[in-house]
């Protein structure tokens, strides 16, 4: 683990070791469901970069307006903005164990996070799921998300493969990727997830 006394511009208490796990997987791979179970069983704080960006937009802040305009124009939000939101949420949580979901989305995200926070992840939890299965799940879940139509779904897959897979490969070379077969039923997937987390963390009773 990393000595956090120098992390996040000295914002974390010096005696706390900060543990970060990046959670990656294609759209519809079941990341959100499994993150909720990890939080419940292992006492992590779950942070979603996408949720933080959406919350910032809703807040009506100057930062939120900038983010909203960039998304409308189809531009990628600068890594620094996303990392600052993650960092703020980490500090405000009071916890020292974090699941960061759907991030880093690309190599620039990854480099910015490590440079700004001085934290390297403990490991990457990667939900491996065939594209056909993810497509079926997204089409059938009908959560009222307007980005769950077939064309948009396929575009999201392409972006994931082009941008996020290089991040997985980078950490794989460092021996930090823990792959889980996300095709199985939810409880079986969580059994595999638990096996990954058991050596690292004491369960919350």
From TrEMBL:
This entry's Enzyme Commission designation comes to 2.7.4.14
Q: Which Pfam families match?
A: ADK
Question: Which residues does a ribonucleoside 5'-phosphate bind?
Answer: 54, 75-77, 102-105, 145, 156
Residues annotated as binding ATP are 28-33, 141, 184
Listed transmembrane segments: none
The coenzyme or cofactor needed here is:
Mg(2+)
* A cellular-component GO term for this protein: nucleus
Q: Per the UniProt entry, what are the Gene Ontology biological process annotations, in alphabetical order?
A: 'de novo' pyrimidine nucleobase biosynthetic process; nucleoside monophosphate metabolic process; pyrimidine nucleotide biosynthetic process
Q: Recite the UniProt keywords alphabetically.
A: ATP-binding, Cytoplasm, Kinase, Nucleotide-binding, Nucleus, Pyrimidine biosynthesis, Transferase
Where CMP binds, per the record, is at: 109
- List, alphabetically, the CDD domains matched: ADK (cd01428)
- Catalysed reaction, written as an equation: CMP + ATP = CDP + ADP; dCMP + ATP = dCDP + ADP; UMP + ATP = UDP + ADP
Give the subcellular location.
Answer: Cytoplasm; Nucleus
PROSITE patterns per UniProt = ADENYLATE_KINASE
- How is the co-factor bound, per the entry? Binds 1 Mg(2+) ion per monomer.
Task: Give the molecular function GO annotations.
Answer: ATP binding; nucleobase-containing compound kinase activity; phosphotransferase activity, phosphate group as acceptor
Entry-linked InterPro entries: Adenylat/UMP-CMP_kin, Adenylat_kinase_CS, P-loop_NTPase, UMP_CMP_kinase
What family does this chain come from, according to its entry? Belongs to the adenylate kinase family. UMP-CMP kinase subfamily.
Q: Any notes on this protein's domains?
A: Consists of three domains, a large central CORE domain and two small peripheral domains, NMPbind and LID, which undergo movements during catalysis. The LID domain closes over the site of phosphoryl transfer upon ATP binding. Assembling and dissambling the active center during each catalytic cycle provides an effective means to prevent ATP hydrolysis.
Q: How does it assemble?
A: Monomer.
| Xref: HAMAP family | Adenylate_kinase_Adk (MF_00235), Adenylate_kinase_UMP_CMP_kin (MF_03172)
Q: What does this protein do?
A: Catalyzes the phosphorylation of pyrimidine nucleoside monophosphates at the expense of ATP. Plays an important role in de novo pyrimidine nucleotide biosynthesis. Has preference for UMP and CMP as phosphate acceptors.
Indicate what this protein is called per its UniProt record. UMP-CMP kinase
Task: Please name the source species.
Answer: Ensete ventricosum
